[in-house]
């Protein structure tokens, strides 16, 4: 099946990051207002495909140990990446790769469940290399995924993360995602420690749109 043709025609493309927004310190404190003339840096975005398995494994295995703790699936495992690529081929997953200077710096995925009662709800996952955090790359990738959700005519996009991942929560809040649920001890990280799961969502329906009637 592969990627939706309407989506394919938008990529590859380039986005611009304003590096005047970069600051030192924890990512969740990142500011949104610039303090000087824009310093724009171009980053290439393209769709992930079957030939990217080795590149994704290299990226995942190069993640900082702390960042790997927050992964909801072990993308350092070749079998996991194979499942990922099958989802892309079947059209249930779309993944964007960010490649400044031709090197993979981050990715964002949108997964859509084909089941009737959830097919209008997509789930997003985002990851960036440590040296690209707090530089706006994750936020730009998330904005791209939101637009892909509109293209696919989704009602809602969700994001799931461990509750103590402050930088991820703050980024989604800056982009108008809201908290839908907090599930205690819902996930087990790579160190086999139980963690609370935070579910956030972005409503793609126009403001003022009535909720769909329950049947």
The secondary structure category is alpha+beta
Query: What is the percentage of strand-forming residues?
Result: 25-35%
Shape: globular
Please tally the helical runs, counting DSSP H or I stretches of 4 or more residues: 6
Helix percentage range: 25-40%
Polypeptide structure, described:
It is a single chain. The protein is of the alpha+beta class and 215 residues long. It has one domain (5-203): Aminopeptidase. Helix content is 26%, strand content 30%. It contains six helices and eight strands. It has helices at residues 5-8, 53-61, 65-69, 78-90, 137-151, 166-174; strands spanning 13-18, 40-47, 93-99, 106-112, 121-128, 156-162, 178-188, 194-203. An eight-stranded mixed beta sheet has the order 1-2-3-4-5-6-8-7, sandwiched between helices. A hairpin with a 5-residue loop joins strand 7 (178-188) and strand 8 (194-203). The chain is globular and about 40 Å long. The protein starts with a helix and ends in a 12-residue tail after the last strand. Mean pLDDT is 84; it is low at 24-32.
């Amino acid at each position: 099946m592969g990627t939706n043709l309407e989506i394919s025609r938008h990529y590859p493309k380039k986005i611009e990051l304003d590096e005047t927004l970069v600051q030192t310190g924890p990512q969740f404190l990142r500011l949104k207002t610039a303090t000087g003339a824009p310093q724009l840096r171009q980053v290439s975005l393209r769709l992930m495909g079957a030939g990217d398995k080795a590149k994704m494994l290299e990226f995942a295995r190069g993640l900082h140990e702390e960042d790997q703790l927050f992964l909801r699936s072990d993308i350092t495992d070749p079998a996991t990446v194979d499942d990922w690529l099958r989802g892309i081929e079947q059209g249930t997953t779309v993944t964007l790769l960010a490649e400044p200077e031709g090197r993979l710096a981050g990715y964002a995925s949108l997964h859509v469940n084909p089941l009737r009662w959830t097919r209008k709800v997509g789930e997003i996952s985002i990851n960036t290399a440590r040296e690209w955090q707090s530089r706006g790359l994750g936020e730009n990738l998330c904005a791209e995924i939101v637009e892909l959700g509109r293209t696919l005519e989704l009602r809602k996009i969700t994001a799931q993360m461990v509750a103590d991942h402050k930088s991820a929560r703050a980024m989604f809040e800056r982009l108008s995602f809201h908290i839908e649920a907090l599930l205690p001890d819902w996930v087990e990280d790579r160190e086999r420690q139980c963690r609370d799961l935070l579910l956030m969502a972005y409503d793609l329906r126009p403001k003022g749109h009535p909720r769909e009637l329950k049947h």
